[in-house]
Amino acid sequence: MDSGLLADLKAIGFLRQKEDGFFTVRVHLVAGNVSAQEMKTLSDIAEKYGRGFVGVTTRLNIEIPWIKLEDIENVKEELDNAHIVYGGTGMKVRTIVACKGTICPFGNIDTQKLCKTLDELYFGEKTPCKVKINITGCQNNCGKVKTCDIGIMGTKEGVKIYIGGKSGNELVAGADAGLCPENQVPEHIGKILDFYRKNAEGKERIADMLKRGIQIQV
Fold first, then answer.
1. Pairing of β 158-163 and β 55-56
2. Do the beta carbons of residue 209 and residue 199 sit within 8 Å?
3. Phi, psi of 11, deg, nearest 5
4. CA–CA gap between residue 20 and residue 2 (Å, rounded)
5. Residue 217, pLDDT score
6. Which residues on adjacent β-strands are paired with residue 154?
7. Of all helices (H) and strands (E), which one includes residue 16?
8. How do residues 172-210 score in pLDDT, each as one tens digit?
């Protein structure tokens, strides 16, 4: 299959499977939430174009596998008609992950509201490499914020921001960038992303940029 076509499809959330001719569509969710009506639509698409099943990703998105190449346009049309967003791959800000700190008794901040705000501001923005942002409501760290490019942790003293974490082939703990008020978090995240775009070399992650001695001030 043409590599250019595969890249174009991946950029909008249709990922090639191991099996020739099949794709998985990644549906973008905000803080892992999906309405009952949206779930019905996704279920219908899975039954009609896939093999009747959906999966949840580690970043709290939903994926529908076993979509045939010739059905992709129909799937896109049905998702668009239902105002369901798909995508979230590539060199950009990925889907933002948040724990349930809004309703959890341990939550120190409104994680769901903050995730929605950051999603509206920054999801899908182009960056030198992928950027993963996670939010957790307390120091139990259910959101695993210290191993993301940007981590946000609610504490009783304010919001702590971590910068430059990474997992996967290499595990890097994010640097503690200090505390800020909850209502200032979106502004600080914007400044971090702007700084990253201006100072990254090639396709390096934030962690790799920091290894060169670059200091980000929040």
1. unpaired
2. yes
3. -60, -25
4. 12
5. 66
6. 159
7. strand 14-16
8. 999 999 999 999 999 999 999 999 999 999 999 999 999
Write down how long the chain is.
218
For the segment(s) 97-211, the CATH number from 3.30.413.10, 3.40.50.800, 1.10.10.10, 3.30.300.30 is 3.30.413.10
Distance CA 114, CA 150 (A): 14
Rounded-to-integer distance, Cα 19 and Cα 44, Å: 23
Question: Is residue 77 exposed (0-12), middle (13-18) or buried (19+ Cβ within 10 Å)?
Answer: exposed
Burial class (CB in 10 A: 0-12, 13-18, 19+), 43: middle
- Look up the CATH architecture of domain 3-81: 2-Layer Sandwich (3.30)
Amino acid at 71: D
Q: What is the pTM of this model?
A: 0.92
